[in-house]
Amino acid sequence: MFKNVTIVCLFISISRLAICQISVSGIVKGSGGDTLESCSVLLLEKTDSSIVAFSITNSSGIFEFVIDSVQLNNKILSFSYLGYLSKYVDLSDMKDYKNIQVKLQPDGQMVDEIIISEKQYVSQRGDTLTYHLDNFRDSTEHNIGQLLNKLPGSK
Questions:
Q1: pTM score, two decimals?
Q2: Is residue 86 assigned to a domain?
Q3: What would the pLDDT profile of 94-143 be if each residue is shown by its tens digit?
Q4: How far apart are CA 117 and CA 114, in angstroms?
Q5: Do 10 and 77 belong together in one domain?
């Protein structure tokens, strides 16, 4: 008898746990309608912006959280993706937490081109190394010997 009561109590507590969990899911798209893969999705506290849960969109732009339903009070979803403006969605305004549609707008401060240049400290031509001494000077050396000690491989 005691064993049967224990099993019944166990099933009731497991079923209550399953009922208390809710799925929050949706899709993230760019302004052109293309899905955004690897978009960061955060579930945040509305009061202090602390992170409750974290997800990343899959290759189809879909995200999903499975959380306790009591955790949805005063929560915000935050979406961020490189090259797009971040967007915040208040969950308290929603009745359906599935199929949330989010469209991110491109960031107007995008850079068209990045040029990377380098200083060449040492060049090699055949079996000869040429040191460009201006790159090693920092005005702390008082003679050529101190400058030569700064060159790689000269010590």
A1: 0.59
A2: yes
A3: 777 888 999 999 988 767 788 888 777 788 888 887 877 777 778 787 78
A4: 10
A5: yes
Residue 34 covered by a domain: yes
Do 97 and 147 lie in one domain? The reply is: no
Give SS3 for 10.
helix
The reply to whether 57 and 84 lie within a common domain is yes
Phi, psi of 90, rounded to the nearest 5 degrees: -80, 120
Any long-range contacts for 35-41 (C-beta under 8 Å, 24+ apart)?
A: 35/59, 35/60, 35/61, 35/62, 36/61, 36/81, 36/84, 36/104, 37/61, 38/81, 39/63, 39/79, 39/80, 39/81, 39/104, 40/78, 40/79, 40/80, 40/81, 41/65, 41/77, 41/78, 41/79
At 55, list the tokens. Answer: 């997800």
Rounded distance between C-alpha atoms, residue 30 and residue 14, angstroms: 40
Domain span at residue 155 reads: 117-155
